[in-house]
Structures are given as structure tokens and as C-alpha cells.
């Protein structure tokens, strides 16, 4: 009994250490976003201080307001997610169920696009967008984001589709349903969890993206990840404001994570017929 | 028009620099535009400012108060020339990358951009930017008597020239100087160092980590513009020469002695974390009273005089770089200059030149500095005449004792064009050296091993 208790204590201690290491940057950001610049630099670091909303007020409503950037981020992320899902669901279904020439190659190709280092393809992307006049436009950035989000979504969804037993589809066909109707009425409801998980990941990837955004965006379309960097100026680092922007940029991610948690868990456990859950 | 009399008080207000323009933005921008709309000083130039009226250009700058002030005056430029300027603010780490992509692809996105002087060798070798001499000499585009090119700080002009041709017009710049806590120095009877040796012993005398005061701090973090901004000065002061027999050489006895001094002072008398510090971190630490002295850009004075966070206001003084064993002082010179993108059609190039001429003119320099209506006044103006203007001097001397003298003598006497190796391969060489320096600073490699390794990596770059 004591050995077991010791084990639990040890496990708890180890997880606490990891949790602290991971939580520290977030706690640091939240605390500093509520401080004045002189409190940020105070030593020893002040744990008790008069919180102020000044940094938030400045970054939201001051002259360097990040509201337009937050809007840019929302448009880009939602746009990328919607287009990705519209194309990924049928594609993943096809790869999981249909037999067609080049299926194996198509499957490999989807994965291979994930292996390219993004840095290597920025310049060609830049040139393509430049030549069609899509630099610093929503359609341009969303198009480029599709290049990584679509393969990723297909790859993730295929495994969910593969887990649905053929019997379910066959039952639907016997009842006279067409393939599309079966997909829409029978299959998709079964992979709801998987689709939710994919949506979350695609959205988060688009929301957090920085590398492509910094090169392909400009004054008109500038997501918050890029705008944030302007608070580290050559003259000084505006710690409190930088922390406030980070917290604001993190919020949607955290909210989405909490909301989607249920689906993520469900997506992993739901099975339509006995033994038909994820293997 | 209300006259502007700078006092210590106004200067302290200016110290809030970037912090303040973010909050006060739109209001003072409008005010600045309305207040100084007088275009007569520009119209006395014997050129047709309106010759390419209707053109529009995009200018990439970094987010910094000295560019914010210029952006605030853009409506005046539009009124003067009929040219639309669209500014794009890009963080310093990305502006090089974005402009190089633009230049290599010849897309002409940025008519001009805030350029790193170390990149002109690369730009010129590829003919990505125009030699500006042709524009300076063209009487229809430039009135030499009005523009007074020679008034622009010579050190920055030569930093932006390759083989005697100018490729970027200096707009704002800096030099590195010694910044020290006069109160601490006085208490121990110390004087600002005249030699690197004295700088080390001053640091030793003031280093009391138990009271949270460290003797000195220099930029330690790896980067072509970070530790490779400070090390080259030390290297040259130790008598180092980048080009030995026509071959780029980064190792050798002078290099070893220089790096040994750098490692020594950082290990013994700087806060441990300083090995990863960049200039804002040094200024933050100094402003909190934890560092007795640093050698860095004169422009950091506005941060350490920012009343919103500094605890050392009124206790700061300045001096030139200490001399090295070679008897030489070598400051690090820097300026943001404006080149002209060669990929532009002729009319846009002319529009770009008019913009550059306007931005670099004595009138605009004054209007963005001591005559600026907003809270931030520039400390990096490009004109000797402005540096001699009593109003400007009075304003700048509010930063602390000996500020203008140290800055001006550094600019005039301590600069050295070959302070860093000016070759097209610089971006890669700068990074390689920065990594080598950091590995020595962190103790991962011995000084000799770090430098030899850098030399081995750099040789193939110079061949290719």
C-alpha cells in the first residue's frame, strides 16, 4: 500500500514539475499584462501589485490597436478552416473507401507535402502570389494555408473514415441510399468527433501560423501573430503590451480547446456498432 | 506658430518614446501635420517637386519612433509633390528577409526600405539597387545647394557606399558609446575608461553582485546585429584586420585577444544572463540600476531616461569607446538608409528619389527631431548642422552629462568604415561569427577553437 502511495506521490511531483515549466510562460504573460512597465522590471518580481488594464486598453484601443489584426486572424483562420473541411471530408472519404487508379500514390502525396520544410517553399509561394497579385490579400494567404492544412486534415480524417465498418454503409445501400446520401446521412454523423477534432487543429494551425504570414502579409492583411512582433521595437521592448497581446491572441485558442475537449474525447471513443470503435 | 523651447522637462517627456506614441498616436499625428504644413523651406529648392505628381510608392520601415515621426509628416510630402506614400511597418528581424525576397524577385514591391548598411555590398553586387550618385548629380531632380549632401554625417555616408558609390541615403543612425552611472563612479573616485584595460578594472571595482550591481554589460546574444555588432569594434581596437593578404581572416592572435577580453568581461563582471541579452535588455537592466556601465548605441539614452520605468535619471553620463591596445577607438556605426529599388519603372524611381531627398533633407530632419510636435524627438538625425543647432543640443544634453560631445566625437573620430567585413557574403558571415562568439561566451568552445571553426566555415563562403 505504501509503495503504491509513494508511486502516486512521485508521479504527482513529476507532473507538477512539468506542469509548472509549461504553465510558467502563460502565468508570466497574464501577470505582466496586468502590470505597468515599471512593475514588469521590478526586482524581486512583484507578485502583489495593483493590476491595471492600461496595457489592454492601449493594445485594443490605442493608435497601434491590434483589433484589425485580430479580425484578420479570425477571417484567415475561419476561411482556411471552412475551405479545408469542404474539400478534406470528401477527399478523405474517397481515400478511405473508393478504389481508383493512383490511390496509393495520392495517399503518399498527401503525406509527402507534410514533410517539406516550409522555409524552403516560401519564396516560390511569394512569387506565385506576387504574379497573380494576391500578396497581402485574404484569398492569397488562405490559398497558401490550404497547402498545409488540407493534406493534414485529409490525413487525419482518413483514419476516422477507415474505422467505420463497411456493414453500416452496406446497410444503407440495401435500403436504397445513394453513395452521397450515405456519406451525408450515415458516415458523417459517425465521424462527427473526428471532424470536430480536425476543425480544431486546422483552425489552431492557421491561427498560430507565423512564418508564411510574415512574408505574405502586408498592411492590409496582417494577422495578430505578425502584429505582435511590432511590440519588440529596436528601441525597447514594451513588455506589458507584448504580454497583453499574447494573452489576447491566446484566448481564442484556450476557449476553443475547452469547448472542443468534449468532442476530442468523444471522437476517440464513439463507436457505432459493437467493436466498431477506433482500433 | 508656437515656438518650441526644449527644457529638461520636455525631454523627460520625450523619454517615454515608443510607449507614448502608441497611446497618443492619432491625435498628435494630425496636430503635427496641421502645425507644420508650411512648405516654403522646401520650395526654395530649384527643382520641380511636382514632376511625377500622381505616382504612388510603398516604403518599408521598422516600427520605431524615428520612422513614426516621418510617417506623421507624410501628408506634407504629399502636398509638396503629389506623390502618395504608403508605409509598411515590418519588424527589424523580418525587414531584411522581406526586402531581399522583393529585390531578388524583382517585383518592385518596396520602392525603398529601411536598409541595413551591411547589405549594400550584396545589393550592389547584384545591381538590385541604384547608385544614388546619378540622382544627386541630376539637376532636374536635386538642387545641390539646397540639399547640401555634404552636411550628412560622413561616417554614415561612407558606410552606405561601395567602391565610392552611394547606395543608400542615411536617414537615422547611431554610434556606440560608453554609458555609465556617474554617481557610482564618483563614489569610488573612478573616471570613465580611456582604455579597454581601464574599462575592465572599473567594472571590477563596481561589481558587487550581492547588492545586485554588476560592473558592466555588453550584448551577448548571437546575431549579426547583436554580438557581431560589438565584437568587431573590440577586434579592430586590438589591431585586427578582416582582410589579410586579400583573404577574409577571422582567427589569429588579434582576434583571440579581442575575444578573450570580451569573454573575460562578460564572465567576470556582467550578469550571467547577459550572454543572452540584446540591447533592450541591457538598457532595461541599466535603467533598474543593476548595471554600472555598458557600451552600446547612443540612442539607448531615451530608454534609460524614460521616467515611466527608469530609476537612474539624472545619474547617467557618457564617454567615447575606450581605446584598445592598438591605440585606436572604434565605434560601431549604424544607420537606416534608403536605397532605390532598381526593379521600378523610371517614374517611380524618380518619385522614390524625391521621397528620399525630402526625408533626408535638413528641414525634414529638424521637423522630425526637435521641431516635432509629438512627444518623441529623434536622437539619430543625419545632419551635422542639426547636431550644431543650439535647440537640438539643449534637448539632447537632457539625456545626461557629455551626451552630445561623446556622440559627436564618436561619429567624427572613432568611426572606421572597415569596422565589419563589407562583402556580399556578409549575412552568412555575420551569422557564423555570431555563433562562434556565443559559443566562446557560453564556454561551449575555447576561444581559439571557436575562431578556427568560424574561419573554416567562412572560407568556402568566400570562394563560392
From TrEMBL, chain A:
InterPro entries: BP-dep_ABC_trans_perm, MetI-like, MetI-like_sf. One of its GO terms (biological process) is transmembrane transport. GO terms for cellular component: plasma membrane. PROSITE patterns: ABC_TM1 (PS50928). It is found in: Cell membrane. It is a multi-pass membrane protein. Residues 70-260 form the ABC transmembrane type-1 domain. Keywords: Cell membrane, Membrane, Sugar transport, Transmembrane, Transmembrane helix, Transport. The chain crosses the membrane at residues 70-96, 108-128, 140-161, 182-204, 238-260. The keyword Lipid metabolism does not apply. Belongs to the binding-protein-dependent transport system permease family. This is Multiple sugar transport system permease protein.
TrEMBL record, chain B:
The keyword Transferase does not apply. Pfam families: SBP_bac_1. Keywords: Periplasm, Signal, Sugar transport, Transport. Residues 1-32 form the signal peptide. One of its GO terms (cellular component) is periplasmic space. InterPro entries: Bact_solute-bd_prot1, SBP, TAT_signal. It is found in: Periplasm. The keyword Signal applies. Belongs to the bacterial solute-binding protein 1 family. PANTHER family: ARABINOSE-BINDING PROTEIN-RELATED, DIACETYLCHITOBIOSE BINDING PROTEIN DASA. This is Multiple sugar transport system substrate-binding protein. It comes from Bradyrhizobium shewense.
